[in-house]
Amino acid sequence: MSGKGIYPGTFDPVTNGHMDIIRRSLRVVDKLVVAVAANPGKGPMFSLEERVSLVLAELQTLPPDQAARVEVKPFDTLLMHFAVEQGAGVIMRGLRAVSDFEYEFQMAGMNARLNTQVETVFLMASEKVQFISSRFVKEIGRLGGDISQFVSPQVKTILDVRFEEERNGIRPLD
Fold first, then answer.
1. Cβ distance 156 to 132 under 8 Å?
2. Interacting residues of 153 by C-beta distance below 8 A, sequence separation 6+
3. Which ranges of the chain does DSSP label H, i.e. alpha helix?
4. Is 81 helix (H, G, I), strand (E, B) or coil?
5. What is the pLDDT of residues 2-15, one digit of tens each?
6. How many other C-beta atoms can be found within 10 angstroms of the C-beta atom of residue 83?
7. Residue 86: left (phi > 0), alpha (psi -120 to 50), or beta?
8. What one-character DSSP code corresponds to residue 41?
9. Residue-wise pLDDT tens digits, 122-140
10. Which CA distances in Å does 144 have to 113, 137, 157, 160, 161?
11. What residues are labeled active site?
């Protein structure tokens, strides 16, 4: 294991795929900061505070010794600036498909130019979760499909409530 790592993302919502990368990242780093990006340009379904709360709740499903090694922090700055603020030397990224690799490869190159002291480590998504994306989970759930195999029961419940609010005009679609 090696120092502190950051696992950044929007986590809108946190999925079983995200949790897989968190668990596996803890095999690589001593401490992990799950960095929840504000990312208003993506038009998230959940507020930044809600997404942080969802990730914190999901961490309770980890064994206590693992959960104790994870922090959840929101950020709205350049990732490399956040990494320096946190004292992290590693950025953890999950890859699901070749299309992810292309984007992530470019991002890792830009980040390396911004800070040569922070390495990017790619973890291939586990076979059971490699097809899961937050965007697809929201689309399937919004259209009445069963999302229970993609998210935890607690996240599913929260999503079901949000979809019902959208259907009733309480909340706008994202």
1. no
2. none
3. 16-25, 48-59, 64-67, 79-86, 98-114, 134-142, 153-167
4. helix
5. 699 999 999 999 99
6. 26
7. alpha
8. G
9. 999 888 888 899 999 999 9
10. 44, 11, 13, 9, 12
11. 18, 42, 96, 134
